[in-house]
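Quiz preparation item.
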């Protein structure tokens, strides 16, 4: 095996949104950073891949995620301005409530407490404001006017490119599972190269359980998720911003986005699908799922009853047992950190998470957040973060 390369301060494995922003924050602090990915930044199999992701502030009573989302939105916008890439669409995010309005009420109270402005609407107000929707099963809603959509794949690539401009080194390589039971001296690639660093971050999403089976195979739950884009009638602006916002209806476990950049109306089920292997997962949607999504579109948007499917995507969530992030040290390697558990809601938090982890590694931050610890990660799923 080749001798280890010259030392890095930190080696980050995984160039998705968590790894990219961690590398970026470390590079901006003038650390020598290596960023490695087996397939490339925001590649087609990554949880960070795909065209778009919602950024919203509402998290029920979970103030920690509301504040992280707010901080991240500011950093995303500053970053896009700096690199001159308009990859945030301020569509607004519309929350819809069914008969049980507890989550909606908790979200509103948390948003107000955090100083955020929202627009509350009863059903009649919703119907006047958004006539393209059918609000069957909806009792009320509120709009986060400052929230919207991040253009995910291109955003991650931009972060990686900017990290490199600030001194980080990027390499395409597949990393072998680390060995030993003490401080990690180096990591090895499948081609026989080695890289040594003072600290290591594994931010490789659904692959965490495969690289660390003894520790994480029963605590990381990759699940199959299907996404659909429906074409809109030509010349019809009802389904594009500003007429149509991004929206979420937790009672149905469905979310959607307006027609952005001519790609069509995006819609997906937020319910966790079957557990999968991210390397071998079939990326072709099922016929049964397609029929269910067509029926839902017809129910929620009558004018799109016969709209064609113009694009589909099969990706994966990377869940912890309850939806909390995993940001902690390996139990046997004191200089190896896990950064994962995006759990379907993590993309938006990339900037805040990267900043938090960079400070932990460098000893600059406050005490670690207990909710993100490995010790809190159980082996049976019971979703609590949405």
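Solution:
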């Amino acid at each position: 095996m080749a001798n280890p390369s010259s030392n890095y301060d930190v080696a980050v494995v995984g160039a998705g949104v968590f790894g990219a922003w961690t590398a970026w924050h470390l590079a901006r602090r003038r650390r020598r950073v290596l960023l490695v990915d087996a397939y490339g930044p925001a590649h087609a199999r990554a949880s960070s891949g795909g065209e778009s992701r919602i950024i919203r502030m509402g998290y029920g009573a979970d103030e920690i995620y509301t504040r992280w989302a707010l901080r991240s939105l500011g950093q995303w916008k500053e970053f896009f301005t700096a690199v001159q890439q308009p990859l945030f669409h301020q569509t607004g995010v519309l929350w819809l409530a069914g008969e049980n309005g507890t989550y909606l009420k908790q979200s509103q109270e948390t948003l107000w407490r955090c100083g955020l402005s929202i627009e509350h609407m009863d059903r009649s107000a919703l119907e006047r404001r958004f006539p393209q929707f059918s609000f069957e099963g909806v009792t009320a809603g509120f709009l986060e006017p400052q929230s919207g959509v991040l253009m995910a794949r291109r955003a991650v690539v931009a972060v990686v490119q900017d990290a490199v401009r600030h001194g980080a080194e990027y390499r395409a390589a597949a990393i072998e599972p680390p060995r030993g039971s003490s401080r990690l001296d180096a990591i090895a690639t499948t081609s026989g190269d080695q890289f040594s660093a003072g600290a290591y971050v594994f931010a490789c999403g659904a692959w965490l359980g495969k690289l660390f089976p003894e520790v994480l195979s029963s605590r990381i739950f990759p699940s199959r998720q299907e996404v659909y884009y429906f074409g809109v009638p030509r010349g019809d602006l009802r389904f594009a911003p500003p007429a149509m916002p991004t929206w979420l209806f937790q009672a149905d476990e469905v979310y959607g986005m307006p027609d952005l950049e001519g790609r069509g109306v995006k819609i997906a089920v937020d319910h966790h699908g079957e557990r999968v292997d991210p390397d071998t997962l079939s990326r072709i949607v099922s016929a049964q799922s397609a029929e269910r999504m067509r029926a839902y579109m017809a129910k929620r948007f009558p004018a799109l009853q016969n709209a064609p499917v113009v694009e589909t995507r099969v990706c994966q969530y990377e869940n912890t047992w309850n939806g909390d992030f995993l940001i902690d040290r390996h139990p046997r390697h004191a200089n190896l950190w896990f950064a994962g558990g995006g759990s379907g809601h993590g993309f938006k938090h990339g900037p805040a998470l990267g900043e938090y982890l960079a400070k932990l590694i460098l000893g600059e931050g406050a005490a670690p957040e207990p909710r993100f610890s490995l010790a809190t990660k159980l082996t049976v799923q019971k979703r609590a973060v949405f």
